[in-house]
Amino acid sequence: MKRPNFNIEIEILADTGNLNCEKVAIICEKHFEILTKHTTFVPE
């Protein structure tokens, strides 16, 4: 199963000049919640 790329949203923010620590922290937190709720971690 292909892993989703969670960096896309951060890259978009960086490209539009709207990147700041607060937004990145919120995005990472959301993605971590999504990952922990919906992903089974498999060692590579």
TrEMBL record:
<protein>
    <submittedName>
        <fullName>Uncharacterized protein</fullName>
    </submittedName>
</protein>
